[in-house]
What we know:
Helix content is about 25%, strand content about 30%. By secondary structure, it is an alpha+beta fold. It has one domain: Gcn5-related N-acetyltransferase (GNAT) (Aminopeptidase). The protein starts with 5 loop residues before the first strand and ends with a strand.
Amino acid sequence: MSPTAIVRPAAPADLPAIVALHDRTFGPGCYARTAYRIREGMPPLSPFCLVSYLNGELVAAVRFTPVTIGGRPGALLLGPLAVSAPYAGQGYGKALVAHGVEAARAAGRTLVLLVGNESYYARFGFIRVPRGQITLPGPVDPDRLLAVETTPGALATARGLVAGEPSG
């Protein structure tokens, strides 16, 4: 990743560029994914969402949504993570995930969940969630449900349905 890239919390003014990046990266079908069901009715940004800019251009963005697991608050759902095609494979996504997981740990969040490729996310400590232990409100390949503990032992005690965490 270029040393001139700026990583910072996402702001409301970034939303148009983030939406455009998601549309270019994932296409319109991304909004039908199960993770978007969890985010329905939630604010579009949380304090954990991050962006990366290079020379004034948005090159990557990641969303972290506060969620409950089995009604217990304290976890985050990571995703989507999007990197602009010309910048893919240059470390921008990795930097956002690493910063975000560390921010979750520092804020006392216990667990970060995602639906993704274990081969990519294992480098950050993500592992497969045991089948049936944590469920999402829609179809998800159980081999793609991953978690990283930001509090030791958090995954062992996390059980149930994932839902958006009410704010306040």
